[in-house]
Design a protein that fits this description.
By secondary structure, the protein is of the alpha+beta class. The protein has helices at about 5-25, 35-45, 100, 125-135, 135-160, 160-170, and strands at about 45-50, 55, 65-70, 75-80, 85-90, 95, 110-115, 115-125. The chain has six helices and eight strands; from the N terminus they run H-H-E-E-E-E-E-E-H-E-E-H-H-H. The strands form two sheets. The protein has a four-stranded antiparallel beta sheet. A four-stranded antiparallel beta sheet has the order 2-7-4-5, with no helix packed on it. A hairpin with a 2-residue loop joins strand 4 and strand 5.
Length: about 180
């Protein structure tokens, strides 16, 4: 390989690393992590290209991964007995499956691509190695997780009226954990 080709490949790799680092900085769960932690997580992450129909998560399985949607569209679905419910589409910039980074988490939903898409995949084992190496980072992740969970539940509360609130009262309260 010529030196100019090697230089171009190295520049492209560096550019990809910088872009992936920026994606990770956008993830609420990772807010406030020091540069060294984020750098290691970035090095351990992998960009994956999907075609329509590719599944990222499968209901009932624990894949130990979380995904940042770079481009395209993902859809979540839920199977109850013989009926499949299409839940919602997920847009670029969403971070999905972050709970799996913290420990075993059986997927409650299937997540699949509805068009050509790209994601940045983070694996639990690599993430936990970084957290063990930088213990202060785990405290930040835990605090961020609590904030994200509380904000998500507040968003749900803001979407329902008082009549629906009375019938949904058993399903709400996740932030009380």
């Amino acid at each position: 390989m010529s030196s100019s080709m090697e230089k171009n490949a190295e520049q492209e790799k560096h550019s990809s690393f910088k872009q992936n680092l920026e994606y990770l900085r956008e993830i609420p769960l990772l807010q406030g992590l020091d540069y060294e932690s984020l750098k290691l997580i970035t090095m351990l992450s992998k960009q994956i290209d999907l075609i329509e129909g590719d599944q990222l998560m499968v209901q009932g399985e624990d894949d130990g991964c979380a995904y940042y949607l770079i481009n395209g569209n993902l859809r979540s679905s839920y199977r109850l007995y013989d009926k499949l419910y299409q839940l919602r589409d997920h847009a670029p910039g969403e971070f999905l499956g972050g709970l799996a980074l913290l420990g075993p988490a059986i997927r409650l939903f299937t997540l699949y691509a509805t068009e050509s898409s790209s994601v940045l995949r983070l694996k639990r084992d690599g993430f936990q190695k970084v957290m063990n190496q930088y213990p202060g980072s785990m405290a930040k992740v835990a605090a961020n997780f609590a904030s994200v969970l509380s904000a998500r539940e507040q968003g749900l509360l803001n979407q329902i009226d008082s009549e629906a609130l009375e019938s949904a009262n058993q399903a709400l309260g996740i932030s009380l954990l």
